[in-house]
Amino acid sequence: MTIQFNNETFRDDYSFHNSDWAIKRFPFPFHEDSYMYSVNMEQHRGGPEGSVYEKRFDVDEHYVSEMRDRAMVLADDPLRCQSLPHMTLAGWDLLELIMVSKSEDYPDLFELHRDGNTWRWINKPLGIDDTFTFLDETTLPYGPMEYITRQAQGDFCVLDQRDEMLWMDAGMVTTQADWSLDFDIGMNFFEWHAPVPLAHEMGIFKRALKFLLNIQQGAPARRLNWTMTVNPLLDTSPENYHKWGIQKTTLTPENIGSKQHLRVELQTFFRLPRSNALVFPIRCYLISFQDLVTMPKWGRRLHRVVRDLPDELATYKGFIDNRPMMLDYLSQFDDGLPTSPGV
Ligand code: HEM
Questions:
Q1: Catalytic site positions
Q2: Most buried of the four, 63, 199, 307, 323, by CB within 10 Å?
């Protein structure tokens, strides 16, 4: 296999780590020295070779360990995966999209053999070889959305589109930045975004919704979002806040370089063919501050972004209390030189 998969954890001893390759291709999200919300959407038509944008669903060295972590979250809390009854067809659409994409984009890792509705799916990294009947749920061990998203990195929201609105009617959400599928299930686009500060007043969600409603099949889109996480935790859910919230108080000037992580979400949007639903994969990439500053232009810029971020955003993203310590650390890597636009 072309990718060497890490054997690592996102909990307890936190053995998660990024190779030099993963650091170099990390999706650093800032194209200037300051940050504010915007409708930062672009086409998802592939990207530079080796980048996280190259394939429709990026598979990297964390794949096997992330899938193991997902299975643990689901064993503790099955409500992290929910699909309202009218969303089963969208689940099949998603299964098809992921199987076709992965088998075309990573033929050495995944194979899909189709003979009418009899499909054979081979997932080599996870040791899966299943034959099933497409559109017949009884032939899979889980519903179609759950089956395939147990084998795909990132969270997945599957949105029903009706009445010129998107509805969060299905999802697999185990690696989220402090929001809950169980709370949001059945909500519409404006309702689940209600807690976000400033963006409503800026008209961002109205414009974003208009864009999303018009996404066509075969023309996916993407954007980046970011936040901060202490320790390389994938599961920062409200359900488990009692476990991870407290860890924010363990930062010290000595350990901040290894414990504090920038968390970047590569969010993509695909129209699904039969159901006309929209799928929203949210792929999480973590990088420790000490790895991040090995790229001098990133260290310099992150210092300026964190320093100048409006308090409302630092509060919403949950790092306002640790911001002074983050700035002390990052300022060592800001030599005051101007930066050029872009990343
Ligand atoms: C935050 C879902 C598309 C902008 C969030 C949250 C959820 C979410 C669940 C967390 C809200 C909370 O605090 O409880 C989705 C889904 C989308 C989608 C399912 C696809 C249909 C978009 C788009 C934009 C956007 C297209 C474009 C501007 C934001 C922003 C935040 C946010 C700015 C705050 C993030 C932060 O500061 O960390 N979204 N979203 N979302 N969303 Fe979306």
A1: 223
A2: 63
What's the chain's Rg over C-alpha atoms?
A: 20
Residue 63: is its pLDDT beyond 80?
A: yes
Closest atom of ligand 1 to 171 CA is 19
Q: For residue 343, is pLDDT > 70? A: no
pLDDT in tens, 296-337: 999 999 999 999 999 999 999 999 999 999 999 999 999 999
Rounded to a whole number, what is the largest CA-CA distance in the chain? 62
**ipTM for the predicted complex:** 0.98
Distance (Å) from CA 193 to ligand 1 centroid: 6
* Residue ranges per structural domain of the chain: 20-80+154-331
Q: Rounded to an integer, what distance in angstroms lies between the CA atom of residue 237 and that of residue 125?
A: 27
Contact between residue 133 and residue 139 where contact means Cβ atoms under 8 Å apart: yes
How many angstroms separate the alpha carbon of residue 87 from the centre of ligand 1?
Answer: 21
- What single-letter DSSP state applies at residue 215? P
- List, chain by chain if needed, residues with CB within 6 Å of any ligand 1 atom: 37, 39, 157, 159, 166, 168, 177, 179, 184, 192-193, 195-196, 199, 204, 208, 212, 225, 227, 280, 316-317
Atom of ligand 1 nearest to the CA of 196: 34
CB 309 within 8 A of CB 326: no
* Edge-first strand listing for the sheet containing 165-172: 42-43, 221-230, 260-271, 278-288, 155-162, 165-172, 81-83
**Cβ-proximal residues to 14 (8 Å cutoff; 6+ apart), any chain:** 231, 232, 233
How does pLDDT run across 208-225, given as a tens digit for each residue? 999 999 999 999 999 999
Residue whose CB lies within 8 A of the most ligand 1 atoms, among 180, 196, 214, for a mutation test: 196
How far, in Å, is the centroid of ligand 1 from the Cα of 20? Answer: 30
Q: What is the mean pLDDT of residues 41-55?
A: 95
